[in-house]
C-alpha cells in the first residue's frame, strides 16, 4: 500500500490545460495539407508520439503519461476543443472543475491554434450540412449531439492486440501493400489503410522506446532498488508493444501504452479496456506458476494501472460542464460474467481487481461488474462489502438480460457471452464492434411539452415541434407525444449520420482501427464501418417525468379537471393552480411498484421502437439507451412545468430511476418498478441508481446490498449502481469543499468527486438520497 499511496500523490494536484498534443497535432496537419486524410492523421499521431514530452513519475512501475506533468486536460481542436477559448481567463477561478492556464499557452491557442482550426474542425464541416438541426441544437434544450467532439466510445480489443504486437501489424501491412500492387489491384482506400497502419504501428514502437531510453537514463542516477525497477521498465518497454507480451507486467504495460496513445489520437471519452480480468488471466497464472510474480506484486501493477487512468480530465467549457459535470473520461473496464460455455468466469483476478478498487479511492476507472444467477456468493460478498463501505465507483450488469438486448440488436449467439461495457453503462460485443454508444441524448420531456402546446417550446417561444392540434384527451396526449418524439428522433438521426460522415471525412482513426477486429482484415477504417457490428447509441432522458405526467393527467381528469386546465397550469408554472398541483404531485408515480409503471414501460417502448427504425452512416443500427450523464439537470433547466407536478427548471429523472423524491415506497419498490421495463429493446444500456443513506444501512449494509443485487438479477434488471452516502455529509461538503476533496459519488454511470460537480447537480444528488429501505 505504501507504493499505491505514493502513486496517488503523483496526481493529487490541480489539473492544468495541456496544449502540447494540440500544438504537435496542428504542426503535423499544417505540414501534410493536400495528402489523403487517413495518411495525415497517421502522420499526426506519429508526430505526437515521437515528440510529446515523456516522463516517468516517482514510484511508477507502469509508465506512459497521457500529458506532461499530470493531471491535466488534453485539447482536441479538431473537435470541440476551441469552445474553451473564450473562457481561458476564468478557467483557473471558475466555481467547479478549475484548470490552470499558462499565459503563453493561452496566447498560442488564440493566435496560432484557433485561426487554423476554426474552418477545419468537425463542427465547421458538419454544420453547413444541417442548418435546421443546428438551430434547435444550440438551444441545448431538446437534444445533444456528442459526435461534434469526435467518436471514441469503444471497448478496445486487447486480446487481439496482445496476441500480435505492433511489429506484426507492420509486417502484415507491408505484405498487404505488396499483394495489392502485385495483383494489379489498385484499391486506393485499402492501400492507404495499410500505409497508415504501418505508420501508426511504427509510432507505437518508437513511443515505447522513448520510455525505455528514459528509464535507462534515470537508472544511472537512482538508488539500488529503484535502479533495478527502472532497468526492468526499460526491458519491458523495449519488448512491448512491439512484440507479444510474455509476462503479466508486460501485458499490463502493453495495455497502457495503447490506452495512452489512443487518448492522443481520439477524443478522450469512453475508451474502455474490455474484459480485463479474462484476457490478463493467462499471464497472471503463468507468472504465479513460474514464480515471477506474487499476488502483492500483481496488486501493485494493477493499482498503478488504475491510477494512470486519472491523469486526464476533459476540458469542458461552462456549458458542457452543466451537461457532463464531474470531469470523468469514463475509461471503463469489465470483470466477472460467464464464459463461452455458459459457466461463471469469475477468477482470482476478478477478486484482486475489486481489492485494487477498494485501495484506490479515485473516480477512474469505471469498474463494471458482470453478474448473473451463476455468480458465486463469495464474489457477491466482496462486491457488496465494497459498496457498503461507500466505494461509489462500481456499476453492476445482469448477463441474462443483456444477452436478450444484444440478441434483439442482431448480435450473433457466438458473440453474446463475451460482451463488454463501454464508458458509462453502454454494452457492446467485445472486440469486434464500434458502437459510438453515446452519440446523442434526447429530452423526452420536451416531446411532451410540444405535445401539449401544438409544437411550441414554452421556454423559448419558438415552434420547434410539429404543428399539431392541442390534445383533448389522455389518448390524444399520448398520440401527440409519439408524433413529437418521432419528429425529434428523426432530427437526431440525421444529425448523427452527418456527424459520422464528418468524422470519417475529417478525422479517420488509423490506430483505433487496429484495435477492433475485422478492420485490419478488411482494410477499412473503423469510422467507415470496418467493424463487424456498427451501432450508434442515442439516449432517452426523462422517461419517469413523462410517465408520471401521463399518470397524473389520468387522475386529474378522473377528478373532474379538464386537459386545458392542466395545460394552462403547466404554462403558468402552477401559479394560481396550487390545489391542482397538489393533486398532480400525489398521483401514482413511477418507482413505487404502482400502476404508473405501465406508463414508463409504454414511453420507453415508444422511444425504442422509433430509434430502431433507423440505420446509420456505417451501415449498422441505431440503438436505444436510457441514461443521462448530467443532462437531466441541464435539460430540466430548459423544460417547462409538467403535469407530473414538476416545476419549471427542475431536474428531470436520471436514467431508469424514479424522479427525485418520488420513490415514496423505498428501494425495493423502486427496483421492482425498474425491472418492469422492456430491457430487450435497450441494447445500448440503461442506468438505475439506488441511493442509500449510510446511517440507515448500519452494520448490516453488506447483507442488504447483496440481497438487493440478487433481487435485481432475479427480477430482470439490466444495470444497477449504488450511492451509499449521507445527506448531512454532502451538505458539509458543499459548505467546506476543501475538506471533502476526494468524496466520490455515483452520478449516472460514472463517478465524480462531489465537490467538482456543479451546484445544481450537487443539489439534485442530495435530494436523491433515500431514507427508506
List the helices and strands and how they pair.
Elements: H1 2-10, E1 16-18, H2 20-31, H3 37-51, E2 72-74, H4 103-117, H5 122-127, H6 131-137, E3 143-145, E4 154-155, H7 158-162, H8 166-182, H9 188-219, H10 224-239, H11 248-265, E5 271-272, H12 276-279, H13 281-290, H14 295-308, E6 312-313, H15 318-323, E7 332-336, H16 348-359, E8 366-371, H17 377-388, E9 394-398, H18 399-408, H19 413-416, E10 419-422, E11 426-429, E12 433-434, E13 440-443, H20 444-452, H21 474-506, H22 510-514, H23 519-522, E14 533-541, H24 543-558, H25 563-571, H26 578-585, H27 597-611, E15 621-625, H28 631-637, H29 667-674, E16 689-693, H30 694-697, H31 701-715, E17 719-725, H32 727-735, E18 744-746, E19 751-753, H33 759-768
Parallel strand pairs: 1-2, 2-6, 4-5, 7-8, 8-9, 12-14, 13-14, 14-15, 16-17
Antiparallel strand pairs: 3-13, 9-17, 10-11, 18-19
Structural Rg = 26 Å
Number of strands: 19
Q: How many angstroms does the end-to-end distance come to?
A: 36 Å
Count of helical stretches:
33
Global mean pLDDT: 93
Amino acid at each position: 500500500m505504501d507504493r499505491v499511496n505514493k502513486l496517488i500523490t503523483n496526481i493529487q494536484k490541480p489539473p492544468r490545460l495541456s496544449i502540447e498534443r494540440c500544438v504537435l497535432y496542428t504542426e503535423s496537419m499544417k505540414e501534410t495539407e493536400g495528402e489523403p486524410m487517413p495518411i495525415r492523421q497517421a502522420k499526426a499521431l506519429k508526430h505526437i508520439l515521437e515528440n510529446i514530452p515523456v516522463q516517468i513519475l516517482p514510484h511508477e512501475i507502469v509508465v506512459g503519461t497521457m500529458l506532461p506533468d499530470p493531471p491535466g486536460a488534453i485539447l482536441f481542436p479538431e473537435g470541440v476543443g476551441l469552445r474553451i477559448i473564450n473562457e481561458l481567463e476564468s478557467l483557473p477561478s471558475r466555481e467547479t472543475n478549475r484548470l490552470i492556464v499558462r499565459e503563453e499557452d493561452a496566447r498560442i491557442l488564440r493566435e496560432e491554434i484557433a485561426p487554423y482550426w476554426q474552418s477545419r474542425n468537425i463542427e465547421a464541416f458538419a454544420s453547413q450540412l444541417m442548418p435546421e438541426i443546428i438551430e434547435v441544437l444550440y438551444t441545448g434544450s431538446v437534444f445533444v449531439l456528442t459526435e461534434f467532439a469526435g467518436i471514441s466510445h469503444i471497448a478496445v480489443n486487447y486480446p487481439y492486440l496482445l496476441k500480435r504486437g505492433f511489429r506484426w501489424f507492420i509486417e502484415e501491412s507491408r505484405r498487404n501493400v505488396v499483394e495489392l500492387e502485385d495483383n494489379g489491384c489498385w484499391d486506393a482506400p485499402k492501400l492507404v489503410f495499410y500505409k497508415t497502419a504501418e505508420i501508426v504501428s511504427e509510432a507505437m514502437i518508437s513511443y515505447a522506446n522513448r520510455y525505455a531510453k528514459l528509464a535507462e537514463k534515470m537508472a544511472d542516477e537512482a538508488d539500488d532498488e529503484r535502479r533495478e525497477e527502472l532497468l526492468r521498465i526499460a526491458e519491458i518497454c523495449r519488448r512491448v508493444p512491439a512484440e507479444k507480451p510474455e509476462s503479466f507486467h508486460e501485458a499490463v504495460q502493453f495495455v497502457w501504452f495503447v490506452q495512452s496513445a489512443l487518448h492522443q489520437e481520439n477524443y478522450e471519452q469512453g475508451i474502455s479496456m474490455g474484459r480485463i480480468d479474462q484476457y490478463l488471466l493467462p499471464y497472471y497464472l503463468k507468472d504465479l506458476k513460474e514464480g515471477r510474480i506474487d499476488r502483492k506484486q500483481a496488486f501493485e501493477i494493477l493499482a498503478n494501472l488504475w491510477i494512470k487512468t486519472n491523469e486526464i480530465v476533459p476540458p469542458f467549457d461552462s456549458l458542457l460542464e452543466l451537461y457532463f459535470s464531474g470531469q470523468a473520461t469514463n475509461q471503463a473496464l469489465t470483470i466477472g460474467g460467464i464464459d463461452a460455455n455458459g459457466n461463471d468466469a469469475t477468477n482470482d483476478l476478478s477478486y484482486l481487481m475489486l481489492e485494487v478498487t477498494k485501495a484506490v479511492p479515485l473516480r477512474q476507472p469505471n469498474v463494471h461488474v458482470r453478474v448473473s444467477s451463476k455468480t458465486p456468493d463469495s464474489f457477491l460478498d466482496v462486491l457488496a462489502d465494497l459498496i457498503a463501505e461507500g466505494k461509489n465507483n462500481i456499476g453492476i450488469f445482469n448477463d441474462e438480460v443483456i444477452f436478450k438486448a444484444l440478441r434483439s440488436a442482431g448480435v450473433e449467439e457466438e458473440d453474446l457471452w463475451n460482451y463488454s461495457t463501454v464508458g458509462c453503462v453502454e454494452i457492446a460485443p467485445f472486440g469486434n464492434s464500434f458502437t459510438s454508444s453515446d452519440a446523442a441524448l434526447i429530452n423526452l420531456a420536451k416531446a411532451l411539452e410540444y405535445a401539449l402546446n401544438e409544437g411550441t417550446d414554452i421556454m423559448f417561444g419558438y415552434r420547434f415541434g410539429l404543428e399539431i392540434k392541442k390534445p383533448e384527451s389522455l389518448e390524444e396526449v399520448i398520440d401527440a407525444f409519439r408524433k413529437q418524439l418521432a419528429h425529434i428522433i428523426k432530427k437526431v438521426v440525421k444529425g448523427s449520420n452527418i456527424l459520422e460522415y464528418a468524422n470519417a471525412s475529417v478525422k479517420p482513426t488509423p490506430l483505433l482501427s487496429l484495435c477492433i477486429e475485422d478492420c485490419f482484415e478488411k482494410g477499412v477504417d473503423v469510422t467507415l464501418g470496418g467493424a463487424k457490428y456498427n451501432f450508434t447509441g442515442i439516449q432517452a432522458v426523462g422517461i419517469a417525468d413523462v410517465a408520471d405526467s401521463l399518470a397524473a393527467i389520468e387522475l386529474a381528469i378522473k377528478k373532474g379537471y379538464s386537459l386545458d386546465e392542466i395545460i394552462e397550469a403547466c404554462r403558468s408554472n402552477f401559479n394560481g393552480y396550487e390545489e391542482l398541483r397538489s393533486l398532480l404531485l400525489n398521483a401514482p408515480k413511477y418507482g413505487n411498484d404502482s400502476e404508473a409503471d405501465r406508463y414508463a414501460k409504454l414511453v420507453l417502448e415508444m422511444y425504442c421502437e422509433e430509434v430502431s427504425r433507423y440505420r446509420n452512416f456505417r451501415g449498422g443500427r441505431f440503438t436505444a439507451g436510457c441514461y443521462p450523464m448530467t443532462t437531466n439537470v441541464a435539460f430540466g433547466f430548459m423544460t417547462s412545468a409538467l403535469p407530473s407536478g414538476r416545476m419549471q427548471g427542475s431536474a428531470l429523472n436520471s436514467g431508469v430511476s424514479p424522479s427525485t423524491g418520488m420513490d415514496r415506497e423505498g428501494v425495493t419498490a423502486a427496483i421492482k418498478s425498474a425491472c418492469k421495463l422492456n430491457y430487450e429493446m435497450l441494447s445500448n444500456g440503461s442506468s438505475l441508481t439506488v441511493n442509500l443513506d449510510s446511517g440507515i444501512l448500519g452494520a448490516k449494509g453488506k447483507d442488504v446490498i447483496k440481497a438487493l443485487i440478487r433481487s435485481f438479477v432475479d427480477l430482470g434488471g439490466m444495470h444497477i449502481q449504488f450511492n451509499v452516502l449521507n445527506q448531512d455529509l454532502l451538505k458539509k461538503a458543499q459548505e467546506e469543499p476543501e475538506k471533502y476533496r476526494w468524496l466520490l459519488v455515483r452520478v449516472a454511470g460514472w463517478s465524480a468527486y462531489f465537490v467538482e460537480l456543479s451546484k445544481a447537480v450537487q443539489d439534485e444528488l442530495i435530494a436523491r438520497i433515500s431514507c427508506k429501505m
